[in-house]
Design a protein that fits this description.
single chain, alpha/beta, TIM Barrel, eight-stranded parallel β-sheet, two-stranded antiparallel ribbon, 9 helices, 10 strands, globular, disordered N terminus
């Protein structure tokens, strides 16, 4: 079973709505859907509550453990929508997902008012791509509800941290905000912020150096699914053509220590994740066995 329930202390783990991630637990898969037509990948967009529940249910059957829903695109060039529109799009869908599914619901928003309404509607995770920096009230909302959160590296805007050192510094700032506001660190997962217009070379650099983020002591989430760096490398302008590249990037991310994967394609992604995870585990076992033999000599 993926996601052991809490019982004791494991260094570096987090709880995402009761599911344990990191600390040696299996990689958790988050299925992503959007209720706004501006999403960079049209295949992720749902147009009604019923379609959202059906799509999310299929994702869970295909291997997702958590459903993440957003109503405002954060793709490069996308214009922010009014808070009132984000609420009208998002909250009815959250209520329908909570009622229709037996799985944790995560909400992708940077706005405290939207997060509060979503949590009141039954969501249990806030995915803030600003790392608590867009809205000064967000940290207090998360703290008061005691919910889990995924915080992405951001300096002044989502995903603008380029080098792995910038990513680490941005995430340290977000973790400091958590501490100042009484957010339980054991409910926090960090995200390096792949994409968001920083350029393919920086995205590849971050993926190659993901292991360094373990120094933060928090589980790591990545969202590489169908993003533009894959299109740049493979010369594929249509996100609909980027599945295979997404799977390759996901497998490498898991080998480099990722604990949570957000994807538009849970079935295919779960296969890539489990193979990469098995290779990672086998390597760790062989390393431990070799160390034990050395100590016995």
């Amino acid at each position: 079973m993926v996601g052991k329930r809490l019982s004791g202390e494991i260094m570096g783990y987090a709880e995402l709505a009761g599911i344990r991630v990191g600390g040696g637990n299996p990689v958790v898969i988050v299925g992503a859907i959007n209720v706004g037509p501006e999403s960079f990948y049209r295949g992720s967009v749902v147009r009604s509550k019923a379609e959202a529940v059906e799509r999310a249910g299929t994702m869970l059957e295909e291997g997702a453990h958590i459903i993440d829903v957003g109503a405002m695109s954060t793709a490069p060039g996308a214009k922010p929508i009014p808070t009132s529109l984000e609420m009208r799009r998002l909250i009815p869908v959250v209520r329908a997902l909570v009622k229709g599914l037996d799985a944790p619901i995560s909400v992708d928003t940077q706005r405290a008012k939207v997060a509060e309404a979503a949590l009141e509607a039954g969501a249990s995770i806030i995915n803030d791509v600003s790392g608590l920096k867009a809205d000064p009230k967000m940290a207090r909302v998360i703290s008061s509800f005691g919910c889990s959160t995924v915080l992405m590296a951001a300096n002044e805007r989502p995903g603008d941290a380029e080098s792995i050192d910038e990513v680490m510094n941005a995430l340290r700032d977000s973790l400091s905000i958590c501490k100042l506001n009484g957010i339980d660190e054991r409910k926090v997962v960090v995200d390096p912020g792949i994409g968001f217009g920083k350029g393919a070379e920086w995205d590849l650099h971050i993926l190659a150096n993901l292991g360094r983020l373990k120094n933060l002591g928090r589980p790591i989430c990545v969202a590489v699914s169908r993003k533009s760096f894959i299109g740049r490398v493979l010369n594929l302008s249509d996100p609909g053509d980027r599945l295979w590249g997404s799977l390759a990037a996901t497998a490498i991310a898991v080998l480099n220590g990722v604990d949570v994967v957000r994807t538009h394609d849970p079935k295919e992604t779960s296969h890539a994740v489990r193979i990469a995870e098995a290779i990672r585990s086998a390597g760790a076992r062989v390393k431990r066995s070799g160390e034990e033999r050395d100590l016995a000599r």
